[in-house]
Amino acid sequence: MIVIDGLPQRQIENYRDQFGADGFARFMEHGAWFINAHYDHAYTVTAAGHAVMLSGANPSRSGIIGNEWRDPDSGDGVYCVADPSASYIGHKTQAYDGTSPKNLLVETLGDVLRSADARSKVIAISGKDRGAILPAGKTGTAYMYMSGSGEFASSTYYMSAHPSWVDRFNAAKPADRYFKSSWTALLPDSAYRRGPAGALPPAGAELPIMYGAPQDEAPGVRFYSSLLQGPFGDALALDFARAALTGEALGQDDAPDILVVSLSGHDYVNHAFSAESLPSQDHTLQLDRLLQAFFRDLDTHVGRDNYIAALTSDHGFMPTPEYSRSLGLEGGRIASGPMLARINAGLAQRFGPGKWVMGLSANTMALDRALITRQRIDGRALAQQARALLLTEPGVAAAYTRQQLLDGQRSAEPLFEQMRKSWHPHLSGDVQFALKPNWMFGVGNRGATHGSPYDYDTHVPLMLWGPRWVRAAALSDRVGIVDLAPTLARFLQIAPPAASEGHLLPLAAP
Ligand SMILES: [Zn+2]
User: Fold this and answer.
1) CA-CA 20 to 30 A from 474: which of 68, 158, 171, 489?
2) What is the 223 CA–ligand 1 centroid distance (Å)?
3) How many angstroms separate the alpha carbon of residue 80 from the centre of ligand 1?
4) What are the chain's domains?
5) CA distance 258 to 309
6) 272 Cα to the center of ligand 1, angstroms
7) pLDDT in tens, 87-97
8) 201, pLDDT greater than 90
9) Ligand 1 centroid distance, CA of 75 (Å)
């Protein structure tokens, strides 16, 4: 399974004519391409999406409601894949580093596969810890890029020491070859900037980009972490996947294995420059060429008739508010601190002094439960008032209280079901909300993000290839990313993961 972090469907459609013969085109021309595939949950961020893919369970079940959230009782920050009891092998582990799937409440496809046959291997690799740990499930093995050293490492949750193929890979210092290298555009300048007439291109989004600051004489932390933003970090992840393929002898016996590679670069590029930028278009083309080379190696090492490839993304991307406004659409950036201060001031007028909203928590407002108890306040009335105040803020589309999410009476309203699928009763805050289209949290006028219930964030590629199992077709049925896990389970002849909410994808046999 290939995951491209932060790849909206529109990008593979817009640049299709510029793809090579056997990268994305392997799926689009020769595989089953679901052109109308969506996430069902509202808060579309990396961890939430990566937890859905191989579990078939929405965040309301998986417990991975965001990349981070607040403990609803204490208000303390929780990182999705943090686990103080596990540390990186051979590398320093810091507070917000991800080391285990402790917070993942559901099993994955790999867990079912490994419980059916312990010989099956499940290996997940990513530039981001959450991109590897969540698809690896409870019993697979995750390896993630270490932005301090340019190496890949696992954690003590999975093993006590790396196998020798990992040590060999890291000893060669593979990231160092990109020091003082430039990411240059693949095509001549006229091939880019395909936006509609009048659209404002994002400022400062140009190629080439050189890796390694002028004052740096040797590769260091700044250089290694910068590699994630662009194609070089993705090339490294795929090289590590090649090493895993031979090191673990994946696909070489009659017990099927799962290899997940989540390529993180596109998300970083889109955050920095937006999906409407030249670097993002070029990065899509770079990924296409990288995939083409990787598939060639899979064909050699595993054999074309011996594997199924799936490709998807964890979420799409919103165009920048400035870009949307240049096209005459409404949109904007919201400073969250002042917004919460206004809401707290409004709550204080009715309920007395206090910071009633502790803060945002994965697109919910977390109310201070200790304060509510101490002041003997009606928590439901406070949540209702917080919701009402939030709905008066510019850019807020919808909000529901815990009570409303639990009783479900508003389920006919447009965003309710999506928001309910992002909300977990024990983990989320007390008022779940969604912003209006083309609105985001942030200040200034640079950068883009994702995290909304709208098509630009929910609509992502979903494609399968494997001539023995899948017939070539572009399928326009609306399907969910939750459908991937049960469909792959069928191919593997195992039960779908227990918490899966998906259906079998409407595939025709070859
Ligand atoms: Zn992102």
Assistant:
1) 489
2) 20
3) 14
4) 2-325+451-492 (3.40.720.10), 332-436 (3.30.1360.150)
5) 10
6) 10
7) 999 999 998 89
8) no
9) 23
